Structures are given as structure tokens and as C-alpha cells.
Amino acid sequence: MSASPWLAPDTTAERISREVSDIVLARPTSRTWLASFALALLLTGVFMAGIGHLVTTGIGIWGNNIPVAWAFDITNYVWWIAIGMAGTFISAALLLARQVWRASLNRYAETMTVFAVSISGLFPILHLGRPWFFYWLAPYPDRMGVWPQWRSSLLWDFFAIIAYLLVSILYWYVGLLPDLATLRDRANSRGRQVFYGLLALGWRGDAHHWQRYETLSLTLAGLAVPLVFSVHSMVALDFSEGLLPGWHSTLFPPFFVAGALFSGFAMALAIAVPVRRWYGLHRYITPRHLDYLARMVLAAGLVIDYSYAAEIFDAFYSQDRYAIASLMAKFAGPYAWVYWTTIACNVAAIQLLWSRRVRYSPAALMVIALLVLVGMWCERFLLIVNSLFRDFLPSSAGMFYPTVWDLVFLFGSMAFFLVLLLLFARLLPMLSMAELRKLLPRHAGEDA
Amino acid sequence: MAQVFSRYAGFYARLALIALLVLTTSGVLAWRALTAERHTVNETVEQPVPFSHKHHVGDVGLDCRYCHASVETSAQAGMPPVSTCMTCHSQLFTDQRMLAPVRQAWISGQSLAWRRVNQLPDFVYFNHSIHVAKGVGCVSCHGRVDQMPLMRRTETLSMKWCLDCHRDPEQQLRPREHVFDMAWTPKDQRSLGIALVQAYRIDRAKMMDCSLCHR
User: Fold this and answer.
1) Residue B4: which of A142, A144, A184 has the nearest Cβ?
2) Closest to A262 (Cα-Cα) out of A346, A383, A164
3) pLDDT digit string (tens) for B89-110?
């Protein structure tokens, strides 16, 4: 019995533990890390100041107006929550499908999920005119005798985000337990021993522990996969429940889920490429891993491209003048440049992924992944704004122009994400050592 | 290698979890207590003149409408102007020091600054006259005012309290002729209430609409 083809033949359990935990325990904090952390922290500070300004002054600081009451706020929300989806997909759906190549990707993908969903959850609260009343969305008995409206998809969002956040945090933390125990045992200072020891909750690697760990992981994975699909479908229903041309479409739930996997896999690539370079993880995140991620991007991207085509077909096939007008505004209206950017990123750029040479070139993959992330942001922006800025009545048409605060919230949230990711890289194991060790031959003694 | 944690670590960890639970719960409760409206039910309010409803209604026997004159016709029951006080107090107890602010107000023409006991937020449109017309007695919402030396509120005035009655008005309705009767009690409230809902044509379908109060 030979080792999994995803590991080099000279890989041993000890080597996996040493190389992965040394990143956290032994590797000195680099200047690059410090510089990027300082920069990201500064921008996060600007983001927090923006939140303060928003709460004290009101949402009028954004460029939203009355026909376009949703713009950057909801675009950012959908964009971020979508990025989270692929993380769960990699760690849960691929687990259920017994895809061993997820072993080197699942940890940072789950982390990406937890951070992206946490950040996305800020936007639905912040975009409320009175964010301090957001808890009215929760069904609790109160002095008013009032309950939330269960027919609104925005309420379903509330439950979807909370459920998704809870399950993804649980799944992430359960997966971390054996690795935290490894860090605790390898830690070289009392402070670290206590820190990781507390986090590891007394994990001893007992057979009972492992049995329950596996059962719980599978159960959570089984819960998380339907959640990925339903949560992002819920996000889609925010729009398709509405009656606007360009929003009211039965295509949206699967289209949004595909978009989520598309942008999420792109983000997974965009993190994998620099991480394996900076932290020397070539042994674990191999070109083949990147190749598989790229294939997933391509597969999800083709579903997206199909949906673009179906959208065009549907509009003309319906003969609905508003649907057609909305579509024509996309092609040639004032936001047409956003549409053609979307097409260039999400349709044209990903066709390069058919080529094996591109899929094995980290630099090319990085560029394509970033283009996809830009393209998916533009797609959501256009989907929201293009349907709102001109709808049924010509008298209620109005352009949306972002203000500087819109940009602060967009780039500030990215910086916040980066801060969290950098902390993760410094404090927690980026690869799942326990999962990787499982790829080794089961009976090393018999093998030799 | 030495043990990282002492043998009591598990115990401390459990203690810490319990403490966290207690802290969170008390934090939430404290926050609710802080942000809730001041709970002024059954607390008397300091007034410029210690006006006694017990004296004027209970002992003297004035009808509610003598002072709160617009209660049957207007959304506001109305506070009596100083001239109402002076119909009697230009002659009675004119030398009482307690009544000095009333005389002062009468001479100077300045209004008396009564402090409201039953105060609703301005996004609630409450109409007194409709309740009186449909047979809701003063006692139902204001309590036994004839037994109050100093005014206090007897109900929370929370929205849930309003809705409890709007959902099930039978529990409070009384014949119109007894609306201002402080001491009236029903024999069989349930069947009387059901009959009165019919008789006064109370449209139950609209009683829970937002637009009824939040205009």
C-alpha cells in the first residue's frame, strides 16, 4: 500500500507536524507580515471610523438614493457571503465525496469562510437606517407584542446568516481541535502551551475522541452542504422575491449558488498561490491542487456563463418590454462598462482555464482568480443597480454614484478580512495536520 | 515533560464557563433594564400642586367630565385650564398655601405646568373619544382614580397591553352609561362583553391594524 498520490513519497507524519506547526511556533514574524498587517490594520481603522460615521450621521453618507436604495452595501454583502461558500464546499462537500485532495485546502478554506461570512454579516446590519434595532429581526416575546414578518426574504437572510455562521464556526473549530493539540504538544513556551492547551480542550487523541470527531465532522459536513445551497439561495431570493425586471427570476437561486462557488474558489486560489509561496508549502499545496481548484472555477464559471445566456434568452423570449429594456440598459446603458467588465472577467478570462498550461501556472491562476473576484463584484453591483436605476416608471429613474464612504466600506472590509487572515496565519495552523497525516499509508510498518 | 495544566484545570474551566454564562445573562438583563422605559407604574409624580383626585371625585363627587371636558369628543381628554379650578377656588380655600400656584397662574395668565403621568410616544395616535363611545370605562385603563390622593399610572401602556385588549375587547367593555362610573362591576363580563361588541358595532377586523394607532 503506497501513500496517497497527493503526498511526496518521503513525507512522514513527523514532517507534516513539524513543517506546519513551525510556521506558527518557530518562524519569526517577518517584516512583510508586519508591514502588511500594519497597512491592513490602518485601513481597518478607516473602516471602523466609517462605521462610526455611518451610525452617528446616517446612511445618507453613502451614494444610495431613492430608486437605487441598495448599492454598494448589498453588493458587498452578497460578494462576501459568496466568498464564504466555497470554503464550506471544499471542506464539507468534498469530504462527503471523499475527495482526498481537500486535505491541504480545507483549513484555510474554512477560515476564509468564517471570516468572509462574519464580514458579510456586518453589511445587512449597517445598511439599516437604524442599525441599533436590528435585533427586531429576531423572534422574541417583547413588550410590543410584535413578531417579525416571516414572508420577507430579508428575515430569512437573518436566519440564514446566523445559522451559517454558527455551523461554519463549529465545523472550523471541531476540525482545529487535533491540530491545536499538536501545537500544544510542540509548543516551546509555557504561554503557548497554555494558549493552545486551552483551545484544544484537553484533546488526547484517544480512540473515542477520534471516533466522535469523525462522526461529528461528517454530521456537520452533512449539515453544512445543504446550508451552502440554501443560504446562498436565500440571498438570491432577496432579489427574485422582488418584482423588478432583472430581479424577478426563478433562475436566481442556482445561479447565485454557482456564483458563490465561482467567486469562492477564485478566492481560495487567490489565497493559495501567495500562501504556498511565502510559507513554502509547495509540498502540500501542489500544482495539482491548484489545477483542481482551477477546474472548479471553470466548472462553476460555465454555469455562470450559462445563466448569463439564459438571462438574455429569457428576456427576449418573455417579450416583456421591461425585461428587454432592463437588458438593453445592461448592454448599452450608463453602466454598460460594468457589464462588459463582468463579461470580460467572468466569461472571457476563465476560458483560458481550459488550457493545462494555464492551470499549472500559479501566476496566471492568480491573475484569473483576481479577475473573477472583480468580475463577480461587478456582476452583483450591476444586478442590483441596473434593475433599480431604471424600472417601470420613467419618472423614478435615477443614477447611482458612489461616495468616498462607499469605497471606504468596500476596501475597508477587504482590509479587515486581510487583518483576520494575517492573524490566522500567525496563530493557527494553516493546513490541517490531522487530515494530511491521514493521507499517509495506514500501516507504515507493513509497508516497509 | 511536566503537565501543562494542574489537576484542577478542568474544574476551573467549568467554573469559568458557568461564570461566562452568568455574566452574559446578567449583562443581557442589565442591558434590558437600562434600555427599558422607566417603569413608573404605581409611582406618584411630583406636581406643582398636589392635586387629589380622591378629594375631588371620591369625596366631592365630581363627574370626570367636569374637568376632562373633551374626553367624549376629542382625541385628548384634556387637562382643565386654571379657570376650571377657579370656578370653585376663587371662593373656596382661597387662603390655602397649597393652592398658591393656582392663584398665581390665574393672576399672571401663565399655565400651570402639570407633569404627565400617562405619556405615550408621539408615534402613537391615541383617541380617547372612540374608547368612551365604545364602552371602555375610565377604570379599565386608569384604575380607581377616585381613590388616588396623588395621580399614578396603573398600567404599563405597553403596546402588548393595548393589543391584549384589542384582540379580546369583551374582557373590558361596559355599557356606555357606566363608562364614568368608578365603582361599577359587571355580573358576567364575558357574555356582557360579547353582547356589547355586537351592540356597539365594534369592527374587530380592524382592531389589530398598524394604521389604527401608528398613523
Assistant:
1) A184
2) A346
3) 988 888 888 999 999 999 999 9
